[in-house]
What we know:
Blueprint lengths: L6 E6 L1 H5 L8 H11 L3 E6 L3 E4 L2 E12 L2 E4 L5 E4 L5 E4 L7 H9 L9 E3 L2 H6 L16 E4 L2 H11 L1 E6 L9 E4 L5 H8 L7 E5 L8 E7 L2 E9 L16 E3 L4 H16 L4 E7 L2 E6 L7 H8 L3 H16 L9
Parallel strand pairs: 1-2, 1-7, 7-8
Antiparallel strand pairs: 2-4, 3-4, 4-5, 4-6, 9-12, 10-11, 10-12, 13-14, 13-16, 14-15, 16-17
Amino acid sequence: MTSLQQTILFVIDDLELKYFEFNDLVTNFWIIKEFLDRDYEVFIAVKSGLMTEGNVAKTLCWQAYEKDGDIFYKKDEPKKYVIEHFDVVFFRPDPPVDIDYINACSVFDYVDTERTVVINNPIAVKNFNEKFHLNYFPEFAPENIVTASAEEIKAFVREHKKAIIKPLNQCFGGGVYYLDTEERNINTIIKNLTNNGKTMVMVQRYLEGAVHGDKRILIVGEHVFDECIRKLPGKDDFKFSEHSDKYFETTHLTAEEKEMAQKVAKHLNAVELYMVGLDVADGKIMEINVTSPCYFIREINSHNNERFQDVLMEKLINLIELKQGKIPATVC
């Protein structure tokens, strides 16, 4: 590290490292490029490169750079750095939140977040399940149960007629099924998702408005963005499953949705979960994305004819400076 500018470490997904070049579908690449454009010194790492030596958290990482509008990294041997030597860390690998993910989070038990700003704090990520913990906000959550019991699940479906069953630690809609009282494969679905009654899943009352898609509400710190995108169900699917322009439409937040999101943002910001995406239908939160939420920058730009990356970066930089004590809290 030689720059007098702030140094930033991004912990990204293995797949993103493998295909590290600017791709406007990938939120991490947008943010990395924008920081490089602003002359920050940026390094990248993956979960498996995190480590401790005694009680000192370290990482193997590569320096990123920009050339001709694209992003690259120096593909030499990775350098080893103490994580607290970075000014800012963005911890944004994708789920599943398995034992390797949890162990990577645990490395940050040895990072002083008063010294290094960590977004999102992996200790908080480890303790906050994106499905399970929407029940911190019961007034905003659809009726649901979390259980491994087939009988409890079937009783819930009988009571509510229509339901969604989902694993607790997956992403991109993986393992999510629609259930109703006519589903002939319900026993097989439950058996597979619960690992024959050993693994807990979430079952939610089906929200009828979800047939028209769900809104992604975007948050940084305590700021709820006005920009909002609706994700539409894919072809022959009940849920959003295809990242294609025809499955997005621009929309707006209702006053009730914004008030709801602000209450959630205030709570999560207090526990150092700063970058958050809420999936909402019928005024209810279906999921609270805190691991590596997508900000759908390309789609918002395309539908709204704007540069949402500039709006996002303003709030991220404000957040960083707020946490570093450089600006008063009223600015962010």
